[in-house]
């Protein structure tokens, strides 16, 4: 199927790409402080519509259930709510973290917005009563994912916290304005339904929940992906596998050519919404691959992109995959300004069965 590159160039690294629930609009955020809006035309192509300026780099985005509102977080520390209303895009501050906010997610079932930040807190926003709850985390958070019932938070110390969303929502008793009037802002204690150590030995890069609500997938900086289940009995089948690696050669101290396994971070994971056991990974090697979580098999690997894959997002119908591409530090070169020619968002159109899982291998 077709692969197209969005025409409006970004001037800094891509941080997130999010399709609206109806698949007609794509939001892209960047470290250049802008949010880019693309609308799908009659031919299925996504055309640039407008740019929304922020005061600091935007790190993540999330849509509400009907696609009229979206949420943004970043180095401005604010959790912002934007209304897409014609030419006007008014915004509201839902809460303010004490440091950069790195992830935001929306739960349609509970009508809450969850954000995590480097101040080691999680904010829960009840959109029904305007209440906000601030929860202290036991470390700096890295990634966040939601399903209908749970919020999964991963920390730099490799801890994985699973919170019940209904419980989190019930703690939102004060509005943000009321909290600002108090000398000491109330902070809730962590009360996860599960606390576990990651199955991966190194820092988590991303996490995604299975569409059936039974488990989640984590990726790490060390070229591995872990597949876990919430139920203790189901989690006996937990496993991890290596990916996003390149075999090459190097020269040792004796001048001999020896094999070398180059390991890349797995920066992004995303589940396919239709073929529910299938998920995509994107790595620092510029490769996107599709996997079957149930049969533990790779479905497909796409042609290598010119730079690291920063983010992934499937449209709700599973027809499109948005891929954010940006230079990382995988080549060992630290540059003050990224090469803008390598910064792009690619839209891959998938065939109806392209992401369908493979049958399990027969045991010999």
Automatic annotation (TrEMBL):
Gene3D superfamilies: YVTN repeat-like/Quinoprotein amine dehydrogenase. SMART domains: WD40. PANTHER family: MRNA EXPORT FACTOR AND BUB3. It holds the Pfam family WD40. InterPro entries: WD40/YVTN_repeat-like_dom_sf, WD40_repeat_dom_sf, WD40_rpt. Keywords: Repeat, WD repeat. SUPFAM superfamilies: WD40 repeat-like. WD repeats lie at residues 266-301. This is Anaphase-promoting complex subunit 4 WD40 domain-containing protein.
């Amino acid at each position: 199927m077709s692969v197209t590159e969005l025409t409006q160039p970004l001037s800094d690294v891509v941080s997130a790409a999010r399709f609206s629930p109806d698949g007609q609009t794509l939001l892209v955020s960047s470290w250049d402080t802008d949010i880019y809006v693309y609308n799908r035309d009659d031919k299925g192509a996504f055309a640039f519509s407008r740019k929304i300026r922020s005061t600091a780099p935007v790190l993540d985005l999330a849509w509400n259930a009907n696609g009229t509102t979206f949420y943004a977080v970043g180095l401005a520390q604010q959790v912002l709510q934007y209304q897409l209303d014609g030419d006007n895009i008014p915004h509201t501050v839902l809460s303010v973290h004490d440091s950069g906010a790195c992830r935001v997610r929306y739960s349609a079932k509970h009508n809450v917005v969850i954000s995590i930040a480097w101040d080691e807190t999680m904010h829960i926003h009840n959109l029904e009563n305007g209440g906000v709850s601030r929860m202290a985390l036991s470390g700096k958070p890295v990634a966040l994912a939601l399903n209908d019932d749970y919020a999964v938070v991963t920390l730099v110390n490799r801890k994985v916290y699973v919170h019940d969303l209904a419980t989190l929502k019930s703690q939102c008793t004060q509005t943000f304005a009321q909290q600002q009037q108090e000398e000491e802002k109330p902070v809730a204690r962590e009360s996860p339904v599960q606390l576990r150590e990651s199955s991966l030995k190194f820092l988590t890069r991303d996490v995604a929940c299975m569409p059936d609500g039974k488990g989640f997938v984590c990726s790490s900086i060390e070229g591995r992906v872990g597949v876990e289940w919430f139920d203790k009995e189901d989690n006996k089948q937990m496993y991890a596998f290596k990916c996003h690696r390149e075999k090459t050669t190097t020269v040792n101290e004796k001048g001999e050519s020896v094999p070398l396994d180059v390991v890349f971070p797995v920066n992004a994971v995303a589940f396919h919404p239709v073929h529910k056991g299938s998920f995509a990974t994107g790595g620092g090697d510029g490769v996107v691959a599709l996997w079957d979580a149930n049969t533990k098999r790779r479905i497909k690997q796409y042609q290598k992109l010119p730079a690291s894959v920063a983010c992934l997002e499937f449209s709700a119908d599973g027809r499109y995959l948005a891929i954010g591409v940006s230079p990382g530090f995988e080549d060992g070169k630290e540059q003050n300004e990224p090469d803008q020619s390598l910064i792009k968002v690619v839209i891959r159109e998938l065939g109806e069965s392209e992401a369908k899982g493979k049958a399990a291998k027969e045991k010999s």
